[in-house]
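Workshop exercise sheet. Pairs work together: one partner reads the sequence aloud, the other fills in the structure field after running the prediction. Swap roles for the next sheet.
Pair: D.N. / O.F.
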Amino acid sequence: MTSSTDPIRRTTRTGPFPRALTCAETGPGYRDLPTPAVRVDEPGDLIAALPAMLGFVPERSLVVAVLHPHATAAAAIDAVVRFDLDTVTDPDHYEHFLDCLGSICLREQATGVFAVLVDDRRRSVSATAARGHALLAAIGAQGIEVRGAWTVRAIAAGARYRSLLGTGGGLVADPDSSIVSLSHVLDGRQIRRSRGELTALVEPDEQMCARVRRELGAAVARYRGGLATAGRVGQTAVYQRRALEWVLWQIADAASGPPRADREFARLAATLRDRAVRDALYGLAVTDHAEAAEGLWAQLARATPAGDRAEAAALLGFSAYLRGDGPFAGIALAAAVDADGDHPMAVLLETSLQSGLRPERLRTLADCGRQIAADLGVDLGPVRP
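Structure field:
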């Protein structure tokens, strides 16, 4: 089988779909994988590794591993992308799916793809195979070589997979014991049980939002009043520096302390309305404090309404984007745009994600944030490699 010499390297971005339709979701980028490279010896091993490569266990999905030429092997898996199965088989969306996959393969100079169809619904084996064959035929018609394709009801240890290109099949290995999973765990990255777990991280808490809303007016008035007073005596930068330092303290404290109080959330939201402070905080996405910051942005996104929710979700989405977590970045940025359709940064980032812009191309935004913080007299901390 071709996959026996395919080392897993890293993931990339996705191609364009209209905002209502996500083109595809890609997993967290791989920074430093074990040496020698991880190799896929059996289809069951590849299928078991998909949750780690995506960051969550896919359900009712078409997962495509894009193969790229590699100097020491037949090919390397250069991108792993997930499509919603019902969307890609919907006649109204079919062409979007094919355009998306074609653009990804063209951009990555793909030599072929592996495809895994995950569907737990009770339909006959022949019906599932027919659905899969129709997808493979459409992919092949785009000039994309399908080197291997399998169906499976669920990605779990012992689940049976079947080949769509022959009569073979076998059992899925234990996803928890996958060497790719182990490398992720050692790197401190979580593997969610479902995509729904990611969505839940930014779902609004209506009761909390109502409580924070009651505190917000006074918090905004206090911040603006203090900023105006500082401005009259030429101390605007000093005031903003102290505000930025307070947010950084909140990030550090939130990582190990109790949940924020409603008044603290309101003060955070009011502080993020200061453009200089907010823009400086984008610089955290490339530092050692990125994970802790994401935790606070997620809390704030759940606790605040409308525009303030958009600010927090945009910060969260940007940080996830830069570390290569396409699914979570897409969820956070969609939440930001839903909260405020005119939010400039959220719209820019979501458009970039949908158009397939690589994370490293956005690093300049984080560097600008670090410079703004430095101009205020604040060091945001060590930069990640």
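Discussion prompt: Residues 1-21, 28-36 have pLDDT under 50 and may be disordered. What would you look at next?
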